[in-house]
Amino acid sequence: MTVFPSKLRQSPLKTTLLYSALIGVLATQVVGCNRGIKPEAKEPVKLVKLAQPLAVLQPVLSVDVGSKGASSKDPLDLQVGYGEGRLIASSRGGVLSAHDTAGKRLWSVDLKEPVTGGVAYDVASQTAIVSTRSGRIIAVDAQSGAQRWVQQLSGSVLTPALIHNNRVIVSANDGFLHGLSLQTGQSIWQFATQVPAVSIRGSAKPTLLDNDTALLATADGRVHAIGIESGIPLWSRRIGLGMGSSEVERMSDLDAMPIVDQGQLYAISYSGQMIGVDLAAGQVMFVNEAASTRALAVAKGMVFATTLDGAVQAYNRTTGEPVWESKDLTYRQLTNPVAIGNYLAVGDLEGIVHIFDATTGDIVSRVQTKGALRSLQVQGNLLMAQSSSGQVAVWQVAR
Asked: What is the dihedral of CA 346, 347, 353, 358, to 10 degrees?
């Protein structure tokens, strides 16, 4: 069943025609597995003490960037930028600061407005990008904190930018994807997407398909492939398919960033579809029933998910067959799963990071920071997180 062309750099018209056939094919596969798991106000499961915890992670640094000045309506999942021994983070209230690996503050600047999108850090140009509640995109010099440029958008941005090929790509909550000049902030292109009447407040971070193409997941359940330099749409695919009599029941948000790994694309929707696609072969590998707003992780021949009700699941990355499932963290408002070393890490509402044996699904270790966690980041052998209370923690795999 051909669904994705093996040659991605075809003309936009030809690519659009090739992809149009996928809409009906994919819809027939997911319509029967569309029950989805809707979040409910249920008590988080109590944790069971680990009998013999392993020493998997050791602390590198912990700094408090604060949370003063932020509204409770602002997103809690701010992310940090890291590179060449420098960590850049923003408080929810809008104080941007840089720290060395010992936690020493190198500089700090008050942006005078709450930050909603977290930090994107481009080491090559030494540029840090953040976005504010009012829709301002601000670029600062990563060495000094000096402001380089500001661009005002029509909507606020709730996730970090993608910086690539001299473009700053951001997804605004009014449905527009923007491509800005990394040097000046000038708007180079815009791409409009459909905005449903009802959706989850959140958005997926743009990510790379290849060196020339960005992927954007949107609130209407679609994944779009966009030319990074030109902003030309190459193809658009529906993944989330919500069903029901009300607009709430029909929500099909893709708030989880799509994952591309070794020529395979993985995505998961709020409405209950997880899909794996072999891009080179042009085939849908599987469509499973799983619902999440958190990005998937791929490692050890498996794809991992944290579901809306707090299950941690592992599937075979090519067949989609279940490998293991853990319900030890039910209703604990889990972060995205991330692979680090031979393990899988997942954070929760109490600032606890649970370390799973990726092969068996057993929890083998835990570490903790202060405040609820909404996302985890991995860079090399480092695990990073920023909590709702403004605590930034970095751990590394123990040797």
From this structure: 0
In single-letter form, the type of residue at position 370 comes to K
CATH of 1-64+260-399, one of 1.20.1530.20, 2.130.10.10, 3.30.450.20, 1.50.10.10: 2.130.10.10
Q: What are phi and psi of 129, to 5 degrees?
A: -120, 130
pTM exceeds 0.90 for this model: no
Distance of CA 19 to the CA centre of its chain: 25
CA-CA distance, 120 to 206, in Å (whole number)?
11
Among the listed residues 60, 67, 56, the one whose alpha carbon sits nearest the alpha carbon of residue 89 = 67
Q: Judge whether 272 and 331 are in contact, CB under 8 Å.
A: no
The dihedral formed by the CA atoms of 326, 39, 174 and 348, expressed in degrees to the nearest 10: -40
Q: How far is CA 46 from the centre of its chain?
A: 27
Residue ranges in the chain assigned as alpha helix (H): 12-30
Residue 156 in tokens: 């606020």
Sign of the C-alpha dihedral, residues 319, 325, 331, 335?
negative
CA angle 279, 284, 286 (to 5 degrees): 130
Q: What is the pLDDT along the chain (399 residues), one digit of tens a residue?
A: 223 333 333 333 333 322 333 333 333 333 333 334 444 568 999 999 999 999 999 999 999 998 776 666 665 678 999 999 999 999 989 999 999 999 999 999 999 999 988 999 999 999 999 999 899 999 999 999 999 999 999 888 888 999 999 999 999 888 899 999 999 999 999 998 866 443 444 467 899 999 999 998 876 778 889 999 999 999 887 674 444 443 333 334 567 788 999 999 999 887 788 989 888 887 889 999 998 989 999 999 999 999 999 999 999 999 999 999 999 999 999 999 999 999 999 999 999 999 999 999 999 999 999 999 999 999 999 999 999 999 999 999 987
C-alpha to C-alpha distances, 191 to 257, 338, 382, nearest whole angstrom: 18, 30, 35
